[in-house]
Amino acid sequence: MNVLIKKTLMNNICKNASLILMLFVCCAFGACKKEKEQANNNSFLPMQIGNLWYHNNENFTEITDTLRLNNKLFYKFYSLIGGDAEAISYLRIDEQNRLIESYPSAPAKSYLKADFNAKVGDKFFTTGAKDVNDNEVTVVQKTDSEMVFSFDIVYQENLKGHPYQVKYVKGVGFSGNWKKLIINGVVTQK
User: Fold this and answer.
1) How far is CA 2 from its chain centroid?
2) Of 2 and 82, which is predicted with more confidence?
3) DSSP code at position 190
4) Distance, CA of 43 to CA of 168 (rounded, Å)
5) What does 82-147 look like in DSSP terms, one character per residue?
């Protein structure tokens, strides 16, 4: 009888320990998910399917899907420009807080579009290939809430020396006078 009581007691202890461990794992997973969501909300380019930067029916960008390229998760950005031009980009933010672009047709190639850890004055190249697709990028402005990158197409004779700028706003992404903005399920309209 004594052995049966000990065995029952040990089974109860094991069950309780398993339940406590499972509860701990669930709480830890939930905390990690919440941290990831908060990090995404504080990103210079929040990425979630359904995020929308909308000016009008002819000019908008929306995250419509995801896919994996070289085992890395990319978000599909669909843009309509001027009502008749379409653009599709596949973007992700890597572990070093850099905005990377790639495409299913050439998954081995990637383009460095932004480095959100860089400081004002820092420079980098989009590909490093020293061809017409390789832009010299300079961080020209950085605050806690905004970051501006200047792109100079230095390996294209006619475009070299005529840089263009791209601005990102923390928690919003693309800078613009948007009529409707949906970021991580939150809708803002003007």
Assistant:
1) 61
2) 82
3) -
4) 9
5) TTTEEEEEEEEE-TTSEEEEEETTEEEEEEEEEETT--TT-EEESSSS-STT--EEEEEEE-SSEE
- Residue 81 identity (one-letter amino acid): I
Distance of alpha carbon 117 from its chain centroid, rounded? 14
pLDDT over 90 for what percent of the chain? Answer: 77
Query: What gap in Å lies between CA 62 and CA 77, rounded to an integer?
Result: 6
Quick one: which of 120, 59, 111 has its CA closest to 89? 111
DSSP-derived 3-state class of residue 150: strand
pLDDT at 32: 40
| Interval 89-138: pLDDT, tens | 999 999 999 999 999 999 999 999 999 999 999 999 999 999 999 999 99
Residue 113 near residue 127 (C-beta atoms within 8 A) = no
pTM listed for this prediction: 0.78
Phi, psi of 144 (to 5 degrees): -65, -25
pLDDT of residue 189: 86
Please give the single-letter amino acid code of residue 49.
I
Q: Which helix (H) or strand (E) holds 15?
A: helix 2-41
* CA 102, 108, 109, 112 torsion-angle sign: positive
Q: For tokens 């579009």, what's the residue?
A: 113
